[in-house]
DNA sequence: CCCCTCAAATAAGTATGACTTTTAAGTCAC
DNA sequence: GTGACTTAAAAGTCATACTTATTTGAGGGG
């Protein structure tokens, strides 16, 4: 009778392992602007600065290089690459930027991304969702209604996140499904910014129920439209759209 | 008078460096299914198999781990993770899968992604595009018209790719902009699959001109609508949508 | 005076051996 | 059978020696 897993399991698995610790220092430092593009890091300098061995430094640098955050060249060093070249879809980079000074900008980018993806995902979900997924969707929507009043934002958030995760997963598109964590991050970030005693917009809650109904009915057009109304609301909150 | 850079510069920089070579062997092998999820690789086995040192193996494994393709645990080994956990937005993974047996599925996923993103990007572009970008857009659209007849598909493709790159870049959203390479890959893949003597659909060509006009006029709604018509056509080609 | 060539210095890349730490699995006593 | 203890396997870390590519600049020729 228990759930098959917590809807929003933490996405920072473990800071264990020396190289991970170094990565979790260097990554945020770069994405946060402490080492602006063009900065040259030398490996032996990093060895001393973080008091780790060559092995550890090299492994961390390799990972940063695979994210296109830095470029390692012989006789030059490890150079921080320009922002436009970063792999901005890398979950780690997204996490680092959300935790750093770029957070507002990152939230805007992600919200725009979400607004483009989710309506399409909902349309696909209306055609591909399994009965179980439809049931989950309805359940979460109803729970959102139930927790939408009276300072229950934390509980509301859990169901909101779960709802959108199911939509993305039910779309049948693996890439859409992978955006579940990102959407969770955006929704959580929004809730944290909101005054914690402000109940959610009743219209938004209703729209979630409508989406669930449309998906269950296999009505792709309606699912897409209602989802778009939800995400347009999210855009408006960030002033990306005119009111 | 020359262009400021080739529109579709190759995205496989260099297979130089031992660890890169190993990565380019292991990555495709994993994403291609040669090492299915659950497979356990031991580092010393990889050392012998590829005749490289621990250093090299460890660095390659670290990168694969950062892509969530594998998980390295003590006393166990390097385990290939289930497909659902892979970072499917990682450009390297996308490239590997496009080059492997998963290519058709990957192209479908990417086309769906593209169809969701590009209309939104076009709408944003209509509001944010600089005069220079509008000019580029118009130029590429006209070049598409010029090369749309008489076995000029390679030239047509170049302008098609450039056109969509400008749209994504002009959206002002860094994440949208980063999808330029992906769209280029999809368009190229489609052209290669098409019989090389089939001229592009005239309606699609016209739509590109309309999009350019709409962006120039700052008409977000029209830019979005025409772009959607383009991408819906792309979806239809892959039978994702009913005709 | 400029350009070309070549040598040297530098920093990353690679290889290897020794040692540490985690942890799965087996063993033994209860 | 259940629990605690031992063992061994594999990754993790460190230090060192050596290799290779590349920038820089110095010298020689045009």
From TrEMBL, chains A, B:
Pfam families recorded: FCD, GntR
Family matches, as InterPro entries: GntR_C, Tscrpt_reg_HTH_GntR
Top-rank taxon: Bacteria
Domain annotation HTH gntR-type: ranges: 16-83
Keywords (A to Z) from UniProt: DNA-binding, Transcription, Transcription regulation
SMART domains noted in UniProt: FCD, HTH_GNTR
Name by which UniProt lists this protein: FCD domain-containing protein
């Amino acid at each position: 009778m228990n759930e098959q897993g917590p809807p929003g399991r933490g996405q920072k698995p473990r800071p264990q392992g020396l190289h991970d610790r170094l990565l979790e220092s260097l990554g945020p430092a770069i994405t946060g602007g402490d080492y602006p593009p063009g900065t040259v890091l030398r490996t032996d300098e990093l060895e001393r600065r973080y008091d780790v061995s060559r092995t550890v430094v090299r492994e961390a640098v390799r990972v940063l290089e695979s994210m296109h955050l830095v470029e390692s060249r012989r006789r030059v060093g490890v150079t921080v690459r320009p922002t436009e070249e970063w792999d901005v879809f890398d979950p780690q980079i997204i996490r680092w930027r959300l935790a750093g000074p770029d957070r507002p900008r990152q939230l805007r980018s992600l919200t725009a991304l979400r607004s483009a993806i989710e309506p399409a995902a909902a349309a696909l979900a209306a055609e591909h969702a399994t009965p179980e997924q439809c049931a989950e969707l309805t359940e979460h929507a109803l729970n959102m209604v139930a927790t939408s009043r009276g300072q229950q934002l934390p509980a509301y958030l859990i169901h909101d996140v779960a709802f959108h995760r199911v939509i993305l997963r039910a779309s049948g598109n693996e890439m859409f499904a992978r955006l579940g964590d990102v959407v969770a991050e955006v929704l959580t970030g929004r809730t944290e910014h909101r005054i914690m005693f402000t109940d959610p917009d009743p219209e938004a809650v209703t729209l979630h129920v409508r989406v669930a109904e449309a998906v269950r009915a296999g009505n792709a057009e309606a699912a897409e439209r209602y989802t778009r109304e939800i995400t347009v609301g999210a855009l408006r909150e960030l002033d990306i759209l005119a009111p």
